[in-house]
Amino acid sequence: MHKISKFRILDFRGGDSQEFFSVSNDTIANMNGMKVVHAQGKSTMTVGKRLIKQAENGKEYLLSVG
Hints:
This protein is an all-alpha fold. The chain has helices at about 15-20, 25-30, 45-55. The protein is about 35% helix and about 0% strand. The model has no long low-confidence stretch (mean pLDDT about 75).
């Protein structure tokens, strides 16, 4: 796996970015500089909405519910 020095990945078609996102969400969440936010609810839609409300403008996120 290639080591990526910055988290700003805008191209998901292959190469380093594809390798970066091929790892588990837990691996990404445990990388230095990552902030993890959790929410609970009865459905993925509820959880997704709660997480999106916590998002800050100008930041990029990897959203995972389920």
